[in-house]
Specification:
This protein is of the alpha/beta class and 169 residues long. The protein has one domain (2-15, 36-162): Rossmann fold (3-Layer(aba) Sandwich), CATH 3.40.50.1240. The protein is 29% helix and 20% strand. It has a six-stranded mixed sheet with strand order 3-2-4-1-5-6, sandwiched between helices. The protein is globular, with a radius of gyration of 15 Å.
Length: 169
């Protein structure tokens, strides 16, 4: 059994209109949302073995700050350059590359790929349809696999979908 977490990067800043998309940093709201999401993550008893994110500044920063907030060592966070322009198939490929010693992992990426990917993970017949994953949105999936190489679309079970503005239960 494996657990995959998928997170959309935190809210990015648009204060410098001429800045290239790749270089956009996080807005203060994004920086503030990460500890909130990390606390909820830990309160649910969740833990991670590794995080892989896009190299864009806002995404790499989200991954690094989230890892720090949950106590995950910085050497367990890596960048996959292919995730910057990734669609759902590339996110699936990135998940399939995790080391099998990792039971719980996270991908940090961009929309619309993140929303497409999480919907594809659960499949059309699941009755679950997510319109959009908001910034700092975090989804947890359970996968009935022993090897990350066996991850397949349509085979995941959505456990949790959390985001900063979600009302607590």
């Amino acid at each position: 059994m494996k657990t995959l977490f998928v997170m959309r990067h935190a809210k990015s800043s648009w204060t410098e209109p001429g800045l290239k998309d790749f270089a956009r940093p996080l807005a203060q709201r994004g920086i503030d949302d990460i500890p909130t999401m990390a606390t909820r993550f830990k309160d649910r008893g969740c833990a991670l073995d590794a995080i892989v994110g896009s190299p864009a500044v806002r995404t790499a920063t989200t991954a690094a700050l989230f890892a720090s907030a949950i106590g995950l060592s910085a050497d367990r966070v890596s960048i996959n350059a292919e995730l910057y322009f990734a669609g759902a198939p590339m996110l699936l490929r990135a998940a399939s590359l995790f080391d099998d010693t990792c039971a719980a992992v996270m991908l940090v990426g961009h929309n619309p790929a993140v929303t497409d990917f999480v919907n594809d993970l659960v499949g059309l017949n699941s009755g679950i349809a997510i319109d959009t994953v908001p910034t700092s949105g975090l989804l947890q999936f359970e996968l009935g696999i022993e090897s990350w190489a066996h991850i397949a679309l349509g085979d995941a079970r959505l456990i949790e979908f959390d985001y900063p503005k979600k009302e607590s239960k």
